[in-house]
Design goal:
- With 394 residues, this protein is an alpha/beta fold.
- The chain has 2 domains: 134 residues, Immunoglobulin-like; 223 residues, 3-Layer(aba) Sandwich (Aminopeptidase), CATH 3.40.630.40.
- Helix content is 30%, strand content 29%.
- It has 9 helices and 17 strands.
- The strands form 3 sheets. It has a 6-stranded antiparallel beta sheet. A 6-stranded mixed beta sheet has the order 13-12-14-17-15-16, with helices on both faces.
- β2 and β3 form a beta hairpin.
- α7 packs antiparallel against α9.
- The two termini are 30 Å apart.
- 39% of the residues are buried.
- The C terminus is likely disordered.
């Protein structure tokens, strides 16, 4: 079973409270017990690569004990949070394939609260993967439905904007085998977008989907006009001094570079407009005027959290640069109200990195890790979507 649903009338204005999450495991099954202040509408589905159980519901006020998050049996750990005021999520990391059954509801002893229980039963790999694929297809089918009623729905899931670097006349770096950075990062970005869409947890948009040049400021403008909750720019690094240097690096925007190498990378990437045949305009002075604003400071704090989440997630899949988390004044990371990061997924000048960048298997693993990092960041930060055009298919 890929999806289980428990429906009750949820008309109270105050968000329901979940005060505890209890896990009891056996040899072939486990029970998840949620202690809630009221009856709550919940749904479940499973994801693979890695294996997870997702429980979704309305906006929930989580008031859990400090030790919450530890798992037992088939559950390695769990995390929780509000994705928007109307949408909350609990994600259980699984140690082995296990499928959810139906919810059961019982009043707690003494009344005043409810215990919502969900049984997990050990599953074989084939059945679990089939359930995960079925859940993903069902979510995509719902999103792509062309029925008149669906056209009036507004998708309030967080929006991730992926920015494939360079394009058109701006080739970016050239690899040892003659590959252009613009082509490598576009293929990677399209694969990442498909991975995010398959998870069904967030919306995704790309600043370009073909070989065209987009000025740097237009990329930022695209993200802001679409109400992006996260902006991630994809690039490939390069160095002419040595072909031995390799690895991925994640950057955040800051006028003060973390080191000289980061400053050089930002200077190189900021020349994209000139490389693409567009006049370089001076920086918007309003950005400088707002440097002391709380919005910008909060956004930079969140951008650093995003970067750390990315580095943590990809560490087991890619060789990291010796200093994988850096900051510099990238023009494309200038939006003061959108958490943003730029990831150099590998060195175009490294044969080892190029082999990975051209590998479908590596791309599949790497895009999975990045998609999970983006989803986890939004979950943990409690990001709520900013106003965006009210379209059924953004």
């Amino acid at each position: 079973m890929a999806v289980a649903v428990l429906c009750f009338d949820h008309s109270a204005k105050a968000a329901p409270i979940i005060a505890d999450i209890q896990i009891a495991s056996g040899a072939t099954s486990a029970t998840i017990r949620l202690i809630a202040s009221e009856q709550v509408q919940l749904t479940t589905f499973v994801l693979n690569n890695p294996d997870r159980l997702v429980v979704e519901g309305p906006g929930i006020n989580f008031q859990l004990p400090p030790e919450s998050g530890r798992g037992d049996g088939p559950i390695a750990s769990y995390r929780f949070g509000t994705v928007s005021p109307e949408h909350s999520r609990i994600v259980f990391e699984l140690t082995r394939p296990a499928l959810p059954g139906d919810f059961t509801l019982t009043p707690t002893m003494g009344g005043g609260a409810f215990a919502i229980s969900l049984n997990l039963t050990n599953s074989d790999r084939q059945s679990f993967d089939r359930a995960a694929d079925g859940a993903a297809q069902a979510r995509l089918k719902l999103e792509n439905s062309s029925s008149p009623s669906s056209q009036t729905l507004i998708d309030t899931r967080p929006l991730i904007v992926i920015d494939p670097g360079h394009g058109g006349n701006d080739l970016g770096a050239t690899g040892a085998t003659g590959l252009f950075e613009k082509d490598v990062v576009l293929a990677f970005s399209l694969a990442l977008a498909k991975k995010i869409e398959a998870q069904g947890l967030c919306r995704v948009a790309l600043t370009r989907v073909q070989d065209v040049f987009i000025p740097l400021d237009e990329r930022v403008k695209f993200a802001r006009q679409h109400g992006a909750d996260v902006f991630l720019s994809i690039h490939g690094d390069t160095i002419t001094a040595s072909t031995d240097i390799r690895g991925a690096t994640v950057y955040v925007g800051d006028e003060k570079s973390s080191d000289a190498d980061a400053a050089k990378v930002a200077e190189y990437e900021n020349r994209a407009d000139s490389n693409g045949g567009v006049a370089v305009l001076p920086s918007d002075s309003s950005i400088s005027d707002i440097l002391g604003d709380l919005t910008l400071r909060e956004t930079r704090i969140r951008s650093n959290r995003l970067a750390r989440e990315l580095v943590t997630r990809i560490a087991d899949t890619v060789h990291l640069n010796h200093n994988p988390l850096r900051a510099a004044g990238f023009r494309v990371l200038r939006a003061f109200d959108i958490p943003a990061a730029l990831i150099e997924i590998g060195y175009m000048s490294s044969k080892s990195d190029l082999e990975q960048l051209r590998s479908p298997e590596w791309t599949d693993r790497m895009t999975s890790r990045i998609a999970d990092a983006l989803s986890d960041f939004l979950l943990q930060s409690g990001s709520s979507p900013r106003p965006a055009p009210k379209l059924a298919q953004p």
